Amino acid sequence: MMPNSLGRNLFIPLTLFLVIAFLIGPFLIIVAASFSAGDTLAFPPQGFSLRWIAKVFTVESFRASFGMSLFLAIGGTAAALVLGIPASYALSRYKLPGAEVIRTVVSAPIIVPGIIVGLALLRYIVVPFGVGISLALFLAHTALVLPYAVRVVSASLDNLRSDIEEAAVLLGSSRTGAFFRVVLPNIRGGILSAFILGFVTSFNQVPVSLFLSGPGVRTLPIDMIAYMEIVFDPSVAALSALLAFLSIGIVFAAERFLGFSRYV
Amino acid sequence: MFQNRAEALALALPAAIFAAAVFLVPVLILLSDGFRNPVVDGVGGGWTLSAFTDFFSSSLNQTVFLRTLRLGAIVTVVSAVIGYAAAFAIVSLDPVAKGRVTGLVVLPLMISPVARTYAWIVILGRTGIVNQAFQALGITQAPLRILFSETAIFIGLLQLFLPLMIISLISALENMPKDAIPAARVLGANWFQVFWKVVLPLTREGLVIGGTLVFTGSLTAYITPAILGGSKVLMLETLMYQQVAVSSNFVAASVIAFILIVMSFAANILLKRVATARNKVRAAA
Amino acid sequence: MSDQAYLSLEKLTLAYGDSVAVADLDLDIRRGELIALLGPSGCGKTTTMRAIAGLLPVRSGHVRLDGADITHVSPNKRAVGLVFQSYALFPHLSVYENVAFGLRLKGLRGTELDAKVQSGIKSVGLSSFANRRPAELSGGQQQRVALARSMVMEPKVLLLDEPLSNLDARLRLEMRTELQRVQKETGVTMIFVTHDQAEALALADRIVVMKRGAIEQIGSPQDIYNRPQSSFVADFVGFENVFALEGGKLKAAGSLFELQGEAPSAAGLAWRPRMVSLGTGPFRGTVRGTSFAGDHREYLLDTPLGLIKAEVEASQPVHDLGTELAFDLPAHKAVPLSQFS
């Protein structure tokens, strides 16, 4: 795209350097800041220590909210898959009247801003039906992950020939048996990818959970924001860095072993 | 393709009913609240637009509304400009390097937005890197107030959503006929003309997809304006949160929710139309 | 071969939603026959095959197999095998496990299972590929796995969907031989669906030609090839010159034409290109196109009857484009058609 090779030689590395520095730099700064020995968040870090990283593990509320977020990410994603896999299967294998309506309804939570979903749930599920905050969070995160589950699982079902099910049936398998024997093993990669995508989405989700917090019931990101407002020490940086490495590690492993990006 | 309707419904309905009950119905009721007279002591109810006129008569709300639109638009345009440069640079790399750089671009998407936004406090704060550098270089005497401003929100949103634009443009550039640029050059187009007459039309769809993602993302981001804008520089999402958490004004919150949804849908439809209008032209040609 | 029907379709009607694909179809097939269902796409041949397999519910009518009414028997209990056009191998299973799939469901285990699987794989010559995944095999090998997978189940009827269409010319001949061998060795009743007349003629004992959801003609390959009964079948098996007959005269391009010699009484007459005599005769036409085809030469003539396709031996002198030629459609060579459409 550059008029001459000199321009081209400079343009490409320079652009890439600036863009990547802008995208990744802040994250590296967080990582560096979490090794600071000082009492306040600062860069360059004052000295070197592991005290803030150690502190993350001792803050009681972090432990509780981490547990909550983990529960929501795993449980919500699992529930979304339990609902989403049969729905995806029906949408891809059957001639279903109103298929588009169903597809729209299950994918809708992705379009609507999370804060609205959270508030709607608070006002019209939690309050009128006396639903507990934990359960409401679970429902919200399930609904939030459902569109991803349906999208990713549908994609891997669409890549799988449907006549292998007929072949299985003609070899003596029942319809249900054919699903478990020949469909499920072949969409395993898609399901695992959906799980990872759902897990990361749910774990990092903030707006949905904003209004859904009660005494002692909070997701980790909400807890981090609340903590930041009171204490400005590097422990949130340390926690952010740890979580980021966790996410990156999971996604990297998924890409390595599943070819994650094929499905997402 | 199976034909058993009952079976299909039995498989699909649980998910649909769940999404409808937990998501669709509550959200629709919430949105309808914005159009209702509040019921006080059993009196009231009925449909009205007064909440909307009230909302827009406040100059604070107007400011927030316009700021949200403005930030959405600016972030989209700037990310498109940077996105084209970055996407061009990336597609010109050899496959291995391309994979790695694409990985680095996507990487931030995996990191919690809280962590990503939080980093900007360290960079843009009173004693942050930018202010340290400016003072060390003698550009400014006293620390600049960058944090809790529109600029800070803009930077945060740009960093949050730029990867989506770059990814969309990379795939658009890769799907572009390989010889289009050399062909245009041979026909005597300069680089500006090549971009404007060849690259832009051929990658319009990718631009539209990226643009929709960035614009609606910026519109509906909560964490970035909450952390980098503080309680004074509000966007619609943070205003909505304040209306509920501080003022307990649920009707105003419903109005904002409605506006946010209308804006996202309008952006989606508008941009989709831009993309399909072009397809029709191509199909007719 | 007994005359009694082994598989019979009685007044079979099949439909997708409101559109009827096959209407009131009757067909009897004897045990051990190799039948081809031949027709253009959309003629209902695949639909019929799927109904025999039980993959498509029957709207009305009956399917009987080996003395039992299987119309409403579910496909996993029919003892009908199907080799899919795409082979439909299970991508996550090895060749061995693909072949073992149905046997395991039957409850076979241990050495009995192993023996059957091994002999099945061996019979299609893939013993050294037993541990491969389908993706690591060529198309021809995949098809043989699919064949073995169906055959180890010892089906009463084996259905094959366009078994040769995905193969290149060399493999086609190989597979054709393979299918004939399997049929001879096991005596299984085979029905295969094809849109390719050459395939049907080469392979089948009997050919069922289908058109728009109904049977147009049933007969031996020789019957179908030499004595098509309708203009549709004639056209399908290479009679390029097909005309309606009205009062002993040819009806073409809106006019009637007298034939030399006595025309048989029929609804129409058909000539293959090589049945047309060039050089003499009552008709005249202009050479519009000509092409050399090895041992013969093809001509396309523009005539008052419309376009006529003729074929002569390549050793004959060449007629240039634009030449006016006399030609004849000899009545004694014409194949009479009882149906003209």
UniProtKB/TrEMBL annotation, chain B:
<keyword id="KW-1003">Cell membrane</keyword>
<feature type="transmembrane region" description="Helical">
    <location>
        <begin position="105"/>
        <end position="125"/>
    </location>
</feature>
<feature type="transmembrane region" description="Helical">
    <location>
        <begin position="12"/>
        <end position="31"/>
    </location>
</feature>
<dbReference type="GO" id="GO:0005886">
    <property type="term" value="C:plasma membrane"/>
</dbReference>
<keyword id="KW-1133">Transmembrane helix</keyword>
<dbReference type="GO" id="GO:0055085">
    <property type="term" value="P:transmembrane transport"/>
</dbReference>
<protein>
    <submittedName>
        <fullName>ABC transporter permease</fullName>
    </submittedName>
</protein>
<dbReference type="InterPro" id="IPR035906">
    <property type="entry name" value="MetI-like_sf"/>
</dbReference>
<dbReference type="InterPro" id="IPR000515">
    <property type="entry name" value="MetI-like"/>
</dbReference>
<comment type="similarity">
    <text>Belongs to the binding-protein-dependent transport system permease family. CysTW subfamily.</text>
</comment>
<dbReference type="Pfam" id="PF00528">
    <property type="entry name" value="BPD_transp_1"/>
</dbReference>
<keyword id="KW-0472">Membrane</keyword>
<feature type="domain" description="ABC transmembrane type-1">
    <location>
        <begin position="65"/>
        <end position="271"/>
    </location>
</feature>
<feature type="transmembrane region" description="Helical">
    <location>
        <begin position="182"/>
        <end position="200"/>
    </location>
</feature>
<feature type="transmembrane region" description="Helical">
    <location>
        <begin position="71"/>
        <end position="93"/>
    </location>
</feature>
<feature type="transmembrane region" description="Helical">
    <location>
        <begin position="207"/>
        <end position="230"/>
    </location>
</feature>
<keyword id="KW-0812">Transmembrane</keyword>
<keyword id="KW-0813">Transport</keyword>
<feature type="transmembrane region" description="Helical">
    <location>
        <begin position="250"/>
        <end position="271"/>
    </location>
</feature>
<feature type="transmembrane region" description="Helical">
    <location>
        <begin position="146"/>
        <end position="170"/>
    </location>
</feature>
From TrEMBL, chain C:
<dbReference type="GO" id="GO:0140359">
    <property type="term" value="F:ABC-type transporter activity"/>
</dbReference>
<dbReference type="InterPro" id="IPR050093">
    <property type="entry name" value="ABC_SmlMolc_Importer"/>
</dbReference>
<dbReference type="GO" id="GO:0043190">
    <property type="term" value="C:ATP-binding cassette (ABC) transporter complex"/>
</dbReference>
<protein>
    <submittedName>
        <fullName>ABC transporter ATP-binding protein</fullName>
    </submittedName>
</protein>
<dbReference type="GO" id="GO:0005524">
    <property type="term" value="F:ATP binding"/>
</dbReference>
<feature type="domain" description="ABC transporter">
    <location>
        <begin position="7"/>
        <end position="237"/>
    </location>
</feature>
<dbReference type="GO" id="GO:0016887">
    <property type="term" value="F:ATP hydrolysis activity"/>
</dbReference>
<dbReference type="InterPro" id="IPR027417">
    <property type="entry name" value="P-loop_NTPase"/>
</dbReference>
<keyword id="KW-0547">Nucleotide-binding</keyword>
<keyword id="KW-0067">ATP-binding</keyword>
<dbReference type="InterPro" id="IPR003439">
    <property type="entry name" value="ABC_transporter-like_ATP-bd"/>
</dbReference>
<dbReference type="InterPro" id="IPR003593">
    <property type="entry name" value="AAA+_ATPase"/>
</dbReference>
<dbReference type="InterPro" id="IPR017871">
    <property type="entry name" value="ABC_transporter-like_CS"/>
</dbReference>
<comment type="similarity">
    <text>Belongs to the ABC transporter superfamily.</text>
</comment>
<keyword id="KW-0813">Transport</keyword>
<dbReference type="Pfam" id="PF00005">
    <property type="entry name" value="ABC_tran"/>
</dbReference>
